[in-house]
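Section 5: illustrative case.
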């Protein structure tokens, strides 16, 4: 799979690459945050049609998220979002999405920087560019997709353009899933009470109860299969419900850094993640899940982004390749992320994951920084400093608790480890 990163000029024009001199393109366009089941349905259709017509399967990712870019512009005199802005509300990074697209069989990914100048272009102009510059002959979209300035290019308008020009076809995918639900317009993370996987707060409500809840929380209607709904569930610790929508466990990725080393001192060494991670961080608490070693970090970033053994290309704004392994890989050359993430991989361990501010010791240390601390449940000694790791959340165990002393904390940590082994053995 080849990846090209593109930035529009000040007028919103893009220097589009030549995808192929002899093949047409089946394309889709969107953000694909989280790569949930609806996104997967659209991309699988792109790949299916491309194979049927001997065309290229092409996905264009808009980055940053248009909703975020427009919100920022509204608050900053139509300025573009700074390139170093950290989107803490994004479910997944662009690189995480690209990895999944490679697994689904996509040939080319175009990562397009979403700017206000580009956003001002009409959907007719944009689609004309796709046809004329990229060789698009089929456009695949979900049922409620909309393109171009002010989102005027909805399915009806695009279909009318297809019929009028006859230069490309529109294929609309049924990506609705189980229908719609309600999510508060604005919500903050809320840690569940008690132990065990929490229930979706909307589950089991009758119509009257749901109506009252939506009014009380100033809700809006969204798809069940939507990034917004997944984000809401994760903010409530409902990682199993989120996984049902995603089709996979939610995960974050980041660099392992040195912490206070208190876990090592009490026999439960953790792999502390850096403050900035890729992916949405669920609500504070303890989770059962997995940690995957994605390899050493080179020059400030892990470059293990190849999805098919290294068929990735260097672009003007970034590069793709394969990371080298630092763990049990003497017999494997440059293992890919997919190899590392696979079930039974020697780079993958069950992990009890703590998210929070370490309340047992915060009064003593004065440190109240929110951290992600996975403890790998293994007898092996793991040296993961300066490695990029993936942390997958399988089940919520309990909320954050302040223990009276270290002995009580150690007993709890052992219990979390035991629960984690039991839960992960079922996966």
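Designed sequence:
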């Amino acid at each position: 799979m080849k990846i090209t990163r593109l930035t529009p000029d000040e007028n919103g024009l893009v220097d589009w690459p030549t995808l192929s001199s002899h093949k047409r393109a089946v394309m889709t366009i969107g953000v694909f945050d989280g790569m949930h089941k609806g996104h997967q349905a659209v991309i699988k259709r792109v790949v299916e049609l491309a194979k049927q017509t001997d065309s290229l399967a092409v996905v264009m990712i808009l980055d940053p998220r248009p909703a975020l870019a427009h919100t920022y512009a509204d608050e900053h005199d139509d300025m573009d979002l700074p390139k170093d802005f950290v989107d803490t509300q994004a479910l997944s990074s662009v690189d995480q999405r690209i990895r999944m697209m490679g697994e689904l069989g996509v040939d080319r990914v175009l990562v397009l920087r979403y700017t206000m100048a580009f956003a001002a272009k009409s959907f007719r102009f944009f689609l004309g560019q796709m046809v004329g510059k990229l060789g698009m002959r089929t456009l695949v979209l979900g049922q409620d997709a909309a393109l171009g300035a002010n989102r005027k290019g909805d399915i009806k308008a695009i279909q009318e353009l297809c019929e009028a020009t006859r230069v490309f076809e529109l294929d609309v995918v049924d990506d609705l899933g189980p229908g719609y639900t309600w999510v508060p317009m604005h919500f903050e993370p809320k840690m569940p009470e008690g132990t065990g996987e929490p229930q979706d707060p909307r589950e089991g409500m009758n119509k009257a109860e749901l109506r009252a809840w939506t009014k009380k929380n100033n809700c809006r209607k969204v798809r069940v299969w939507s990034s917004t709904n997944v984000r809401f569930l994760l903010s409530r610790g409902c990682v199993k419900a989120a996984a049902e929508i995603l089709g996979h466990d939610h995960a974050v990725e980041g660099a392992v850094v040195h912490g206070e080393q208190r876990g090592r001192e009490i026999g439960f060494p953790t792999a502390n993640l850096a403050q900035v991670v890729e992916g949405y961080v669920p609500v504070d608490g303890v989770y059962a899940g997995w940690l995957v070693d994605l390899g050493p970090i080179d020059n400030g970033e892990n470059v293990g982004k190849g999805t098919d053994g290294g068929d990735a290309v260097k672009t003007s704004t970034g590069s793709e390749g394969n990371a080298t392994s630092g763990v049990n890989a003497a017999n494997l050359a440059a293992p890919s992320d997919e190899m590392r993430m696979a079930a039974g991989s020697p780079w993958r361990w069950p992990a009890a994951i703590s998210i929070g501010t370490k309340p047992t010791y915060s009064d003593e240390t004065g440190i109240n920084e929110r951290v992600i601390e996975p403890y790998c449940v293994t007898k092996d000694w793991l040296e993961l400093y300066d490695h990029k790791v993936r942390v997958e959340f399988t089940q919520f165990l309990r909320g954050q608790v302040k223990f009276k002393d270290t002995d009580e904390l150690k007993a709890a940590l052992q219990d979390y480890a035991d629960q984690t082994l039991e839960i992960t053995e079922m996966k």
